[in-house]
Inverse folding.
């Protein structure tokens, strides 16, 4: 096992990796940009190094700076987390040349599957169904128009590299192609450093279902079940659950067989996720292979009891995969809610700033992965994800009920969050029946009116209670939303900063 690793990421996922490393006795090296100097992962790592300014291209996306820092710190390996350089073959290659282990697939494997078009071509040759579309890049608007006419509208323009819904645009008519082509290219370039695009058929009301896999040496591969990821806003996952509500036992086995076939065909290794869409008529189409740990991996950990980060580390260190399919349990159901620093009432505009108060939920079956603490900043330069709240129950109904309680217990003050959206989803009849698809949430949001966190009468009551308490020099009674569970997290020795909160209007 490794003695020291560098984590080439930030925030929640960096902190989560640190947690497993501490369990295994592995020392950790954090890297941070200038705005992240107060981040929780910086405090809890054994060592921390600044790697550049706020711009990702000059810090978290700089292969040179990350590898230089790893060598300087005498780390043995680099863990990329998710996002940034996690799926970049260049980072893996440079690590290999520098004598560093890359905690993920080797560079040649990454190169083979990082290109979605190449991966699509390889798996289609083995008989795995793929979504109809172009099998080569669309380099010009003319190419795009030609392929769109061949496929038939509506179509999707997608980034060849990267994922997470970025660099993706739906086009319903020819007149929309030019703008969509330009915007998708710009987004792909800024998010992944690669502008290449391709185009494919737009499926109506599909389900998005992924299979978590562990791929060890010598072709040993197991799956950890599926995750339903169909609740999306503009192709960004919002809520995930396991198991899927739509699959029969026969369909589930077929899906697993397809996923394992993709892994073996492409020679994939380490931890990954094979993503599919399920059409309304029940057909599965291969979408892509995510070559990293997923944001939503925590619900798989909750139903299987397997630490996926630990498996990444063990396989990358040469210990191999010491699990058989038969010994992997699948117990109960789990739900993950992605909490973003965004304002749902104003077009989901990011709300960077400073978290003045954070209260985390707890209780049976609840897990919270976050780097938040009272007084922590939320920079405007990076992804708006600030926390993941997951619930586990003996069945789906119990997982839903526990999540409702958990969201009601959560308090994040100083920035707006998407918690109200999750509360709306959990009350939606289609969701409760398990009868939903990738286009449902966008439709629901067009009709949804966010409710204030408290009525005017409640706000007046709180105001009076607080002022009476202040006048009498007695502690204020705990608020119903927060109870007495108010504590500081992280950076215990550092006084809160007094710099004004950041807000970038219109982002």
């Amino acid at each position: 096992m490794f003695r020291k690793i560098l984590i080439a990421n930030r925030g929640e996922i960096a902190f989560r990796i640190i947690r497993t490393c501490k369990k295994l006795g592995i020392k950790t090296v954090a890297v941070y940009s200038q705005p992240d100097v107060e981040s929780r992962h910086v405090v809890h790592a054994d060592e921390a190094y600044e790697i550049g300014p706020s711009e990702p291209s000059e810090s978290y996306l700089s292969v040179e700076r990350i590898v230089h820092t790893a060598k300087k710190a005498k780390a043995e390996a680099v863990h990329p987390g998710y996002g940034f350089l996690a799926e970049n073959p260049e980072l893996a290659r440079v690590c290999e040349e520098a004598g560093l282990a890359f905690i993920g697939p080797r560079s040649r494997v990454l190169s083979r599957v990082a290109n979605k078009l190449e991966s699509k071509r390889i798996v289609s040759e083995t008989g795995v169904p793929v979504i109809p579309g172009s099998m080569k890049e669309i380099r010009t608007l003319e190419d795009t128009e030609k392929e769109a006419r061949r496929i038939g509208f509506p179509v999707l323009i997608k980034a060849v590299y990267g994922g997470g819904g970025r660099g993706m645009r739906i086009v319903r008519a020819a007149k929309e192609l030019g703008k969509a082509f330009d915007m998708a290219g710009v987004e792909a370039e800024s998010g992944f450093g690669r502008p290449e695009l391709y185009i494919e058929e737009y499926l109506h009301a599909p389900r998005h279902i992924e299979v978590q896999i562990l791929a060890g040496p010598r072709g040993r591969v197991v799956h950890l079940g599926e995750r339903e990821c169909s609740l999306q806003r503009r192709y960004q996952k919002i809520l995930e659950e396991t198991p899927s509500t739509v699959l029969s036992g026969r369909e589930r086995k077929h899906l697993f067989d397809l996923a394992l076939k993709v892994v073996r065909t492409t020679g994939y290794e380490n931890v990954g996720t094979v993503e599919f869409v399920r059409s309304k008529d029940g057909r599965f189409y291969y979408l892509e292979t995510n070559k990293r740990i997923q944001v939503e991996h925590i619900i798989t950990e909750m139903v299987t009891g397997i630490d996926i980060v630990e498996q990444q580390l063990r396989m990358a260190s040469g210990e191999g995969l010491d699990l058989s399919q038969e010994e992997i349990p699948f117990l109960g159901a789990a739900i993950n809610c992605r909490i973003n620093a965004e304002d749902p009432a104003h077009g989901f505009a990011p709300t960077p700033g400073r978290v003045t108060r954070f209260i985390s939920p707890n209780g049976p079956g609840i897990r919270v992965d976050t780097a938040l603490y009272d007084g922590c900043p939320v920079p405007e330069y990076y992804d708006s994800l600030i926390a993941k709240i997951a619930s586990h129950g003996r069945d789906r109904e119990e997982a839903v009920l526990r999540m409702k309680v958990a969201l009601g217990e959560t308090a994040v003050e100083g920035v707006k969050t998407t918690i109200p959206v999750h509360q709306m989803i959990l009350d939606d009849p289609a969701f409760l029946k398990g009868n939903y698809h990738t286009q449902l949430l966008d439709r629901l949001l067009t009709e949804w009116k966010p409710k204030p966190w408290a009525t005017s009468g409640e706000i007046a009551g709180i105001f009076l209670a607080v002022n009476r308490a202040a006048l009498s020099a007695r502690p204020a009674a705990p608020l119903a939303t927060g109870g007495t569970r108010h504590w500081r997290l992280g950076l215990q020795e550092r006084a809160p900063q007094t710099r004004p909160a950041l807000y970038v209007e219109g982002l």
